[in-house]
Structures
1.
Amino acid sequence: MAVEGIKKAELYVHKSNLEEVLGALQRTASFEVAASGADQSIEGVVQAHPELPRVEGLLAEARFLLRFLEPHFQDKVSPVARALGEKEEISLEEGEALEKSLDIAAISDGARSLERRLVEIRSELAQIATTEALLSHLPDFSYPFELITSGTERVRGIIGTMPASKMPSWRRDMETVLSGMGEIYASTPGEKEQEGWVAVFYDESISDRVMECMTAHSFSKVDVPSALKGTTEEEAKILSERKTFLAGEEERILREIADLAEKRVLAIRTLSDYWTVLRDRYQALLSGTSTEQVVVLRGWIPESGVKRLTKALSPFGTSVELFLFNPSPDDSPPSLLVNAPWSLPFENLTKLYGAPKYGEIDPTPLLAPFFFVFFGMCLGDAGYGVITVGLFMWFMRKYGRMPSAFKGFFQLFVLSGISTIIVGALTGSWFGDLVDAFSFLSFLRPAKNAMLILNPMENPMDFLAISLALGVVQLFCGLLIAFYDALRKRNYMGAFADTGGWIVLLVGLLLWGGVASGFLSDGVALTAKILSFAGAGVLVATQGREKEGIFGKAVSGLLSLYGVTSYLGDVLSYSRLLALGLATSAVGVIINMLAGLAGDLPYIGWAIALLLIVGGHVFSLAVNVLGAFVHSLRLQYVEFFSKFYSGGGTLFSPLTYKTAFVSIKNDSVE
């Protein structure tokens, strides 16, 4: 349960070797660059690498091109496969050669021109669709739209909608207003239409009276595009021809974009990762200080990486100086977790909660055996365990170069599947009661029954007792770890008063409960009472020590004993191991029962039964694996970690190669 030792480092680099030294830091992945503070021993200013603006500009162009071209690219490698490590390997030299061979600025300019034209076409097509929608409401409108959009020397026009119920009265009133000095158009609304379309063409001299009449009848004006000049039929034909032309141009541009994507996306992805590596390298200087000839980088190096980094820097001779110090109490070094292979897959669970602070206990090997057992008890079906192990081992075999984080999770589920097989075999659950439910599998029953120790469906109380007992064991482990950690930090009051008092009290109460239930002999009763009263006495005497006055200390000490209910609630939380295990078994039994009933149907019964068995158990596996993972993890985070672990640290994050599409060949010096 180690958090590796970290050295505080100061790296002095002559500017003549700066590029090569930064490259060595990335190759070895052993140096985390830290921001320089105001109290550093060397005076200087932060100086950006002269290549940083150029690289950031190129990276921005590459990201634009990928955003624009990737939707049109037929990728042979799926995003999932790439995330799992299926990436092409290149060297930085190959990336540099590719940059020289590709004019990214010219490609980007061409792509932006295509994007602009595509936007213009689609905008115009949207406008055409809007205009066509307008014309669709006026199929019998025989007047030229020019009378509305521009009018004549004296004639004006207006068009819009009004409630269908007001159209007859509007017509009468408008004819009176016009008095032969204009014309009216009115559509014929359908039975279910609430509004109709109307238009008026009138002499300019009566504009005010026309508008008063229109307003009085709830008229809503519609703005007609100024480009419309002819009749509905003429304009519809023009729009159709224009739409056909634009659609053809859009198709041509899309083909051009697809061709460009086919030719360039892979190269641009490679360059994007190459420039990302260079950008990260150059940005490291922003955290350092600089004089006229020397750049100073400060950061952290794990003890295991000192030798590797020293060897990588040795070719630079006296132009590079590396100084190492032990972290001071005021420092906040990052944490680098180091675990044995058997507990390494469980490291991701610790990281999900939060890394330990530097110098704190790494809980990974402490939670590993409990999570292993709890997951198996929650899922609890050997058949599901076999599928889980097989599936994740297949993924690991197929994607052998997957990143360590993914590999750790896959190994975690392989181990969890093994636990499930063990628990399922001991409880007789193989896809529920599949072996017992179908007579043609009767030859497997002797083997199944030979491994059976406890059937939770028949003896749930025994399984509950085991669950609660495991909970007690884990909670006491948490308290003992807290006791050890307090001693390690020389916090003797915290060890003996805070944690030790609870350990003594809880042990006494457990023994007392065992005597009361008849599980333990009466001879243990005296020991139980002594431990209980001793633990309670320690807590009452010490838990109010922060309060003022004797009365305040005494009351706080007495009230601290109420914490017994919290421990009782924590223990009862482990009953979820029984609940989830029973749920998995019950669902499997129901699936098999339904399949058995369906199998009695003539002709197609066997097909329905097979579908129910396969589909039902696949669904049950997916749901219950998720439940087993979440609830097993909850017991670690809420019940176990609360006794000794708070997290809050930061993980060691060295300067290294961070890529999305390719892998950089790393010739790091070991």
2.
Amino acid sequence: MIKTNGKSHCKDVRSRKTAAIILAAPLLVMDLFARGLVIAGTNYRSMYMYLPGILFMVMWIALFTGFCMFLPRLAGRITYAVIAVLTYIFFLCNIISYTYTGFCFSFTLMKMAGEGKNYIGGAIRASGPILCAVYFNVFLAILFAILAGFPEKRLSGKAFFGIAAGFLALHIVNPLLYGAKADELRWDAWRRPRNVYEAFNDKNKSLIISGLTEYTVRDFYLSFLKKEESIGSEDESFLTEAFSDKSLAESNDYTGIFRGKNVIFLQLEGIDDWLVTEETMPVLTALLKESLNFTNHYSFFNGGGSTFNSEFAVNTGYLTPLSYQRNAFTFNANAFPYSMPRLFQAEGYTVNAFHMNTEEYYSRGINYKAWGYDGYHGFLDRPGCNDILHRLDRTLILDEEFASMIFETGHPTVSYIITFTPHAPFVTTGNEVGTYLAEEKYGEPQNFDEEETAKLMGGETDRMIGLLLDKLRETGLYENTVIVGYADHYLYTIEDKDVIPRNKPDADTNLVNHTPFFIWSADVTPAEITKVNSQVDILPTVLNMMGIPYQKSTYIGSDIMSPGYKGFVFFPDTSVYDGRIYAENATIVKGSGTKEELTELLSQVNYLIKKNDLTLKYDWFREH
């Protein structure tokens, strides 16, 4: 036995250090392993994401171990056992959930525990022997720490309260290390770590940047403790009245004309109307002549990231809110029982989405799951799919894995295909895609300006449409398929600001958002539909043509083919256009009409904006 005070002190210090390491080890392993697994399975990277997450991990572990070592030995053992076992449970929940579904565990899932209990066995089996070995060894480490991880002498109160004070101070400061918060409506807000941490709507990214314990504690707080904004009586009365009409949308001459056919939603990245010419896009130009061609369609920029906003509108029938700042990709916790995929699934369809980008981009994976898709499939989520061919639209059709699902013949399908090639930058110099297409077409490098490069890229999308039609013929699906094609937005991403005015007559107003929209099937009688419409009108129009009933009050858009629909579009700055009147700031800028007509139009627009924004804000469909 060591008798001197100095030597006894040194022995005790070593003992406490050893105990702290033993106690911390299982918590450290669970945090690093859970985060590492999710990082390895995603394409989310940011220079700001690692340090704050590591600090959160160290802070929580120091607080837990310090508190347990501060308590009397038996109380410390019991407390540590509770903390470690709870952490272990959430570790298992996250790993099993992620390996089985692709998404981390959230306490919100406990609301669906009754539905999920039938899948627990399959979820655990999906872990495989390696992960099961990890589970077992982590449990042994926890057991060892409980039995052998406590020193003879407790941690002093001064030392523990110093740890606690440091934890509180760092917890306030640490989120600042995520970097600056982007404006909520920036297109790339979904990838900014500070936005991810504060919004906490993408669980995979949230766990990556926060670490297991911070993620679990924050998720619990937001799920159960944070006071949600309750709906006021005025807003509740408004929404109750807005959805009070339970009558189904009326039938018309186009009701059910495509009943039972496969559907391909073809969202055309950056295909502005001036690109659709015999020279640049001959296949699409010819297809428009064989289609229901909606010649007064507007795919307007709304919020941040207009590509995803169009996806949101077509799939849900709603828009990014106009009266408050909230991006479309942050509504994945909302209920969407009347989304496009859910209504088609009720008719026996499988519904899948196909794109180049990963499921992390715009948080598409979690959003498409929230909308009810059977799967979101991105090339960049697959190993070895990051070469130039996977940025060319043709690959969406030529890829065997994608083609096997898009051209499935055993049952009815909906395929949501998002093209990619006509994407900035729009010069061949320094643009790998532009250079590739130029060399392919001309046999040698070409230094094209933005306008010519955009035409080359549009030509690649046109080639993809041709391959799509060929594949439909080859698989025998040509007569049994509907193509719903539309642009996500006009080509606002082009940097040369002379290009758009040179090619579009209304470049100085929101009418610049005019883009192609068509519905094609081999047996459709071609027609030009001149009623003004926008993204929110696509879903109800398609549902009617497919013979899928829906309540007219469900969406903010309308069936374009309905005789009672006069047609109009409103833009984010509340400017409006109905085919005759174009008004900005409640003043007619182009066209003609009376003050009474404009007042009536603006009143209708204000009503729809309020309905749209409050429905999303209060997650109205979850309880109604």
3.
Amino acid sequence: MPEGYVELDLEGMTCAACATRIESSLNKLEGVDASVNLATDRATVRFAPQSITVDKLIAAVRDTGYDAHVAKEGELRDHSGAHRAAFREFLVAAIFTAPFVLEMTAMAAGGHGLLPGWLQWLLATPVQFWSGWRFYSGAWKSLAGGGANMDVLVALGTSAAYFLSVTVLLFGLPGHLYFEASAAVITLVLLGKFLEARAKARTAQALESLVRLQPKTAWVEKDGRLVEVGIGSLNPGDAFVVRPGDAIALDGRIVEGDSSVDEAMLTGESMPVEKHAGSKVFAGTINGMRLLRCVATGVGRDTLLSGIIRLVAAAQGSKPPVQRLVDQVSAVFVPVVVVISVITFAAWWFVGGTFEGALVPAVAVLVIACPCALGLATPAALMVGVGRAAREGILIRNAEALEGAEKLDVLVLDKTGTLTRGEPAVTDVVPAGDASEEELLRVALALEMHSEHPLARAIVKRAAGIATPAMTGFEAHGGRGVSAQVDGQGARLGSPEFLSGSGVSFDAAVLDRLRGEGKTVVGVVHATRLLGWIALADELRETTPAAVRRLLAMGIELVVVSGDNPATVKAIADRLGIRSWKAGVLPEGKAAEIDALHALNRKVGMAGDGVNDAPALAKADVSFALAGGTGVAIETADITLMKNDLAGVADAIALSRATLAKIRQNLFFAFVYNVLGIPLAAFGLLNPVIAGAAMALSSVSVVSNALLLNRWRPR
């Protein structure tokens, strides 16, 4: 059954209660799975298109008192208009509230009020009903939709202070005027909203930087000259040209030219990558100093960069399990605060006997409560963390993967392509008797130069620059070795067992030493004379030992599971200081190893290449794929590393720990703020103005704390 997917830009949300209300309304529809992100003002919705339409989804949002429209793919929401409006509202409020600040300063110094009552009313009214109109509008929409949000609290609290003051002034009643409290609270909350909007915009910078990397035009050759065209006019298979220093417009394959390409935006690797005819290139990367002629292999949404942007956006909009408690609290937060305010009012009136004395703490309770901080605590940190990871070439599929990576205590490692380079290389050339290294390599080159076997390619690469002798009568011997006539005499290359069958004798000590190091050994015979041995191994990446030490220092147990022979796997594990390893394990067997660890109640991660390790990757709690720029791994793994380096796994786990730490800090601050602030206000220990300032700064502090993740750097 096909699944529909849409992202909706939401209008009118002001706090976590709004997001919870919209999400609940959407999820009540049959076949709908929706997630609302307060930090991005966006809903991610999966639905059954045969029973639900996008129009019904939008109608469900509107029924809650908010508005929605379909977000355009690849385009980020422009918050500049709302940002400017928030600044205007704050500026007007600040101008009219400034005289009240002088008034309060004078009274605090022991002086008398400077402003007559009618002037206070004149100053407070535009603040209450022009700058503060957003709170009345938001409260009405929320209540009309059957819910209550932060706007309800602000509107109730400031209106009570304002209209009490109007009544005292109009009827000449004894009592204090609270125009300064209502105006100051609105001004401070608007300041908080303005600062919050600026901070929220910064959390989206990582995704914005990725979107800006997408080129809009490409160069093609027409009638012998270069013409610039929009990338939308090109299709897979079309030819395009990349000039020196230009961004590559599409995913493609080089057909002519040699250059170096800066792929830092994909992999986080600062060193340019050499490219030649046949090499792959990717949209958004930067060409070096030579012209490249390419053919397109991916355009539009099918480029690797577009896939990364979609993945990052989806991850930033997802919710980790830790958010569930916040959603439950947000759903009842505002009604509970209103009840506490009513109880506070009644208790103070009963104890103190005056309406005015009861109103001040009740208003302070309404103003101090801040569901915004709760709503922003998780998504703000998640957005910054996922975006920071993307800039380092670490692609996190969703919030569950991020949270899961923090809990891992054991990591299963594939050997080939994960710990090692994934291709064999010659490590030792050991001549026998009076033979020279050049003679040994010369005959080996003649026997292997036409083979496509990985071992043969490694030998040919090592023998580069040596003149190739004449070779005839080539014959392969069923995976044991090859034979031919070299310079008119018989020659053989193969395993020691293959050579011994031809009557050649040799010293087993050399073989035992090389094989004991986990290397594959082949020998070369020419005219019944042993020329020597060539040892090959899939060598460790230069960064693997340091990455392994770092993972072990992080308290993560490492287990190597490989299909290779025991001697090779043991040699690799011993060299890296890894105690647990298993050899000769097929892909299905790797999945069984994951199950065995799960049976021991371990939190298991798996790092592999995303192809032959697919069964094990699927079984792991969190899977890491060393992608090397492949789209397949992005679609299968929980966390994809855009460069083939095990250090990226350590970086991903470290960043997940840092991000979850920020989320917990934010939730702690948000909960403690309300747990302490509301009782203080209820007991009359907080002036409404101070309560308003604290409320305004609470959400700003949460987002600012999340932004500190931008300082994180890989080790």
